[in-house]
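Deviation from plan, reported transparently: guanosine-5'-triphosphate complex.
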Amino acid sequence: MNHPAKILVIIPCYNEEANIVSTVERLRATCPQVDFLIINDCSTDRSAELLAEHGYPFLDLPVNLGIGGGVQCGYRYARANGYDIAVQMDGDGQHDPAYLMQVVQPVLDGKLDMCIGSRFIKCEASRQALCAGSASAF
Ligand SMILES: Nc1nc2c(ncn2[C@@H]2O[C@H](COP(=O)(O)OP(=O)(O)OP(=O)(O)O)[C@@H](O)[C@H]2O)c(=O)[nH]1
Ligand SMILES: [Mg+2]
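Because the crystal trials were delayed, the predicted structure below was used instead.
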């Protein structure tokens, strides 16, 4: 990679009106260098209105695909739009963006093709990261 890595954070969103704005604002404040895309999967609450009101980039799926299909849409978007790395982060605020670059870094360094963070693993080894989603290279 001979350019700064283009990183996309994919945020699945299903009925997250209580959490989605604070989740996005925390991400923007913590990791201003990454792009993000929210996948609104036919939420029946005010999620879509909030996303539009705040001018956030989002896909509005025409039918509910579930979390797997929703995140796959994000990966396809990342690939189609020239991203080097895609990261999945939940829209309910459970994944702390403070750990995001720890998950991304081994992929950026070419040491791993994919890195999955886990809230269940103690941070004992230097390469383990807690409480972030998963990052993968294309
Ligand atoms: N696209 C899409 N996203 C979903 C759907 N259901 C849940 N999500 C999102 O997936 C993420 C994780 O959902 P959660 O229900 O919190 O699942 P979890 O974190 O594994 O479980 P909890 O420990 O109960 O929080 C959140 O960002 C949700 O908005 C769905 O049907 N479609
Ligand atoms: Mg959750």
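The chain has one domain: 7-137. We consider this an acceptable substitute for the interim report.
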